Amino acid sequence: MEGRRPVELRQLHYFVKVARKQHVTNAAEELHVAQSAISRQIHQLEDELGVPLFVRKGRNLQLTSVGKLFLERIEVVLADLERAVNEVHEFMDPEAGEIRIGFPHSLGIYLLPTVVANFRQTHPNVKFRLRQGTYNSLIRDVIKGDIDLSFISPFPEKHLNVSGKLLLQEELFAILPQVHALADQDTIRLEQLKDEAFVMFSDEYSLRNIVLEACAKAGFVPRIGFEGEETDTIRGLVAAGVGVSLLPEMALTEISQLQPAKVRVIDPVVTRSVGLIQRTGEKLPQVAEIFRHFLLDHFQVK
Fold it and tell me: Where are the beta strands (DSSP E) in the chain?
């Protein structure tokens, strides 16, 4: 519009931070900027757009309908801008680039540290920006461009907006308190746990559905005694006698003071798929493409 000042990049960064924090003070602390400066820039942005972006709800700020629409568009723009800057840096020196990768918590115990450490042996100057998330949040972050690649489980065989490669199939084991009557068995049938309380992941975690489907195949609905969001918590609670659970083998590699018994399940055999995804049709930054090829070689994927 004639006579209207152009929107500044700084205003957009401030807007996104306030929208995520829903609080000017918290945004100011994280950005290390005076609260008054952020408030002034947000007001200027609203004046330049001609619409209110926030409404106050108690001590917090909430996005208006148009504010939500604006945030959705601006996050894409800023992600594209950041990607462009990274591509310029990588063009000058790919070995000094940054890889933005997501992962579910259960892969952060062993798999992720292992592949990052191996990769850095030959690419010591490459930086990693890591983002942990749930199945749906990781797919959303890839689509939005917040991350370049993501480990994912289960691997989405068909998805409109993300694509990738299946890396491996991993077995899930029953974990039991050390004093459990079945703890010294080499193998069990899942049906033998039908009367036990299960320690389960909460709804947003894909491992929950894998366990529920396995129990359904075994002919029962598990009685849920506790829900959690961390494999360490679930493993510790089982070791403490709260219940039983199923966990991937990689989540059981770490030895702790409270250690549950690990028993193979043979009826049904329970597995999960682990894959690597990126945005469909998206050309990866050069350093991320190098890491993708490294992972495919590491897992012997053609």
Answer: 54-57, 60-63, 98-103, 127-132, 149-152, 162-176, 187-189, 197-201, 223-228, 245-248, 261-267, 271-279
Compute the distance between CA of residue 302 and CA of residue 293 in angstroms, rounded to an integer: 10
pLDDT of residue 58: 83
Q: Does domain 83-168+274-298 have CATH number 3.40.50.1820?
A: no
Structure-block tokens of residue 77:
């723009």
CATH of range 9-73; options 1.10.10.60, 2.60.40.60, 3.40.50.11930, 1.10.10.10? 1.10.10.10
Look up the pTM and report it. 0.70
| Between 250 and 85, the higher pLDDT residue | 250
CA-based torsion, 42, 43, 48, 53: positive or negative: positive
